[in-house]
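Entry type: protein chain
Record version: 2
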Amino acid sequence: MNTNKPVFILSDSVGETAELVIKAGLSQYTQNYEIQRIPYVEDTKTIDEALNRAKDEDGIIGFTLVDPILRSYLNKRAADLSIEAIDIMGPMMESMEKFYGKRPRQEPGLVHKLDEDYFKKVEAIEFAVKYDDGRDPRGISRADIILIGVSRTSKTPLSQFLAHKRIKVANIPIVPEVEPPEELFMVDPKKCIGLRIDPVKLNDIRKERLKALGLGDQATYANIKRIHQELDYFDKIVGRIGCRVVDVSNKAVEETANHILRLITE
C-alpha cells in the first residue's frame, strides 16, 4: 500500500522554486511524500483540476503564481475545499511591494530567464577562450562572429568583450607565412570582420609590447617594412573573403566592439 502523501506543486513557470521551498519544509518531517509538479499554470481550470486531485488524494498544495487573480482564486478555492495551500510568493511579493512602493512586473519565469542569460554568457566566454588565436579552426563554423587581423589588433580582448554580450567569437591571426584555415573562406562573409590598423600605430604598439617583454624594439616583429608586408597580406585575405573591415587604429576596445555590434545588427 502506498502511504506517500501527495504534494502538488503549481507554478506559472517550471516550478523549480516552489519545489525547492516545499522540499526544504518537508525535510523537517518524517512523513513520506510524493511530489507532483504542475507547471505553466495559466487558467483557473488547471487550478481546479489540481485542487480536486488534492481533495481526492488527501494532498497538500504548494504554489508560486505571480498573477494576483490566479493567486487569489487558488487561495479562495482551497479554503472552500478545506485544502492546505501554501502561497510561497504571495506574502513575499506583498511585502516587497510595500517596501519598494511599486507594483511587481508579474511576469512568470523571470528567474529562469536570468539563469539562461547567465549560462549563455558563460558559454560565450568559454567559446572565446577555446577558439582564441586560431587554436581550433572548427570554431569558425560554430562562431557568431569571426575576427581576423594581424598581431596586436585587439582580437582577443574584443572576443572577450563581445562574449560578455553573449556572442560566440572566434579570432584568426593573419600571418603572411601561414595560409588561413580553409573554413574561413567557406562561412558567410557577413560573419567575418577584418580588423585594420594604421602601420605607424601598429609599429608603436609592437615596440611597446617588446619593451614590456624585456626585448629590444629592433626585432622583425616591430619592423615597419615587415608590418607593411603583413597588412598587405591582410588586405588580400579580406578581399578573398569579401568581409567588412573595421579600423581599430585609434579606437578603444569598447568602441570597436560596439561598432561591430552595430554592423552585425544591421
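Comment: The first strand starts at residue 5 and ends at 11.
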